[in-house]
Specification:
Glycerate kinase; about 35% helix; about 20% strand; alpha/beta; Glycerate_kinase_sf; 14 helices; six-stranded mixed sheet; kinase activity; about 375 residues; Glyc_kinase_flavodox-like_fold; five-stranded parallel sheet
C-alpha cells in the first residue's frame, strides 16, 4: 500500500479578508476534496503583527484575555497567548494596534503603548519565563514610552512631572527613572519579533517611514523624530537608536532593546519556532503558504518567504489574493509557484468577499498540479 501523501498548509492572513486560521482551513478543504486520502496539516503562521496570537493559539497555546489601555487611552480587552513551556506571546496590535482606532481617527502625537506594557505585565503575572513581543500594525510612535510606564518606569519633564501619553510629549523628557521597573523583567527572556529592521530616528526611522501610515503630517513626523531623538539621548545616550529593529512599531523596538534587554529576531523565524514548524514539515512532500498580497514587501521578511526558507527542501507553493511578483523573484525566495485569487475573479471587492470559496478552488488546482 502506498504511503499517505502529506501536505503542510502554513499561510499568513489575507489582510482585511481572512485570518490565517481561516485561510488554512479553506486551503485544507480544497486539497482534501481534490486529493482524498491526503494527510493535510493546517499550521497557520504570523510574522509578529496582526493575527499572531490567533496563530499560536491554533498551534496549542492558551488564549488569555486581560483589560488594558487602548491606543487612545480607552479601556478594552486584549489577548495574549501562554504556552505550557512558560513562553508567552504578546501581540502589540492587540493593545496598541492601528486597527483599534475608530475609522478615520488618528492620534500620531498622543497614541500610547501603555496597553502593550500591561499585556507584558499580565504575562509575567501568569508566570511566563520567556515573552515573545510581536510588533507590527501599531497605531503609536511613542518609542515604547507607554509600555515602559506600564512596567514601572517614570518619564518626567524638567519639573519632575510625568509626561503625557504619546510620542509628542517626549520632546520635553528630562529624566527617565527606571528604578521602579518590574523586577521580574530581569529574570525573563524577552524576544523582539519584528519584520522591520529600521533605526529609531532619521530618514529611515520610525516617524519618517511609518508615521504617515499612522496619520502624521510631514510636520508631525518631524516633531516625532526630534522627540524620539531626545528620548533616546536621555535613556541611553542614543547608543541603541541605530540598532536593527529599534524603529519597529513606532520605536517600541528601541524600548525593548535599550531598556528591557530584548533580543531582536525576525518575526517569522520566531513564530515558526513557537508554532513548531520544524516538526510539522518533517515528512511533508508539499508546503502551501501565502498571504493577501505577494509583492515586493513579501521579499523583506514576510511570512511566505520565511516559510519557504524553513521548509528544508520541501517544495513550496503560495496562495495569495494579488500577485505582483515575477516567477524569477518567487523562485529566488524559494517559492515554486503562486496561485492568485485574482486569476479566478478580476473584481477585487468580490475577491475579498468570496476569498474562502476562491481559495478552495485554488487549492483544488494545487492538488491537481502537485498531488495528481
Amino acid at each position: 500500500m502506498a504511503d499517505t501523501r502529506r501536505v503542510l498548509v502554513a499561510p499568513d492572513k489575507f489582510k482585511g479578508s481572512l485570518a490565517a486560521v481561516e485561510v488554512a482551513r479553506h486551503v485544507a478543504a480544497g486539497l482534501r476534496r481534490a486529493a482524498p486520502g491526503t494527510a493535510v496539516t493546517a499550521l497557520p503562521v504570523a510574522d509578529g503583527g496582526d493575527g499572531t496570537v490567533a496563530a499560536v493559539v491554533a498551534a496549542g497555546y492558551e488564549r488569555r484575555e486581560v483589560a488594558v489601555t487602548g491606543p487612545l487611552g480607552e479601556r478594552r480587552t486584549a489577548a495574549y497567548a501562554l504556552g505550557g513551556d512558560g513562553t508567552a506571546v504578546v501581540e502589540m496590535a492587540e493593545a496598541s494596534g492601528l486597527r483599534l482606532l475608530p475609522p478615520g481617527r488618528f492620534a500620531p502625537l498622543t497614541a500610547t503603548t501603555y496597553g502593550t506594557g500591561e499585556l507584558v505585565r499580565a504575562a509575567l503575572d501568569a508566570g511566563a519565563r520567556t515573552v515573545v513581543l510581536g510588533v507590527g500594525g501599531s497605531a503609536t510612535t511613542d518609542g515604547g514610552a507607554g509600555m515602559l510606564a506600564a512596567l514601572g518606569a517614570r518619564l518626567c519633564d524638567g519639573a519632575g512631572r510625568p509626561l503625557g501619553p504619546g510620542g509628542g510629549p517626549l520632546a520635553a523628557l528630562a529624566e527617565a527613572d527606571l528604578s521602579g521597573l518590574d523586577p521580574r523583567l530581569a529574570r525573563t527572556r524577552l524576544v523582539l519579533a519584528s519584520d522591520v529592521d529600521n533605526p529609531l530616528t532619521g530618514p529611515r526611522g520610525a516617524a519618517a517611514v511609518y508615521g504617515p501610515q499612522k496619520g502624521a503630517s510631514a510636520a508631525e513626523a518631524a516633531t516625532l523624530d526630534a522627540a524620539l531623538a531626545r528620548y533616546a539621548q536621555v535613556l541611553d545616550g542614543g547608543r541603541l537608536a541605530d540598532a536593527p529593529g529599534a524603529g519597529a512599531a513606532g520605536g517600541v523596538g528601541y524600548a525593548a532593546l535599550a531598556v528591557l534587554g530584548a533580543v531582536f529576531r525576525p518575526g517569522i523565524e520566531v513564530m515558526l519556532d513557537v508554532v513548531g514548524f520544524g516538526a510539522a514539515v518533517a515528512g511533508a512532500e508539499l508546503v502551501v503558504t501565502g498571504e493577501g498580497s505577494l509583492d515586493a514587501q513579501t521579499l523583506h521578511g514576510k511570512a511566505p518567504v520565511g516559510v519557504a526558507r524553513a521548509a528544508r527542501g520541501v517544495p513550496v507553493v503560495a496562495v495569495c489574493g494579488r500577485l505582483a511578483l515575477e516567477g524569477e523573484a518567487l523562485a529566488g525566495a524559494g517559492i515554486e509557484r503562486a496561485y492568485a485569487l485574482s486569476d479566478l475573479e478580476a473584481d477585487p471587492a468580490r475577491c475579498m468577499a468570496e476569498a474562502g470559496p476562491l481559495l478552495e478552488r485554488l487549492a483544488e488546482s494545487i492538488a491537481r498540479d502537485y498531488l495528481g
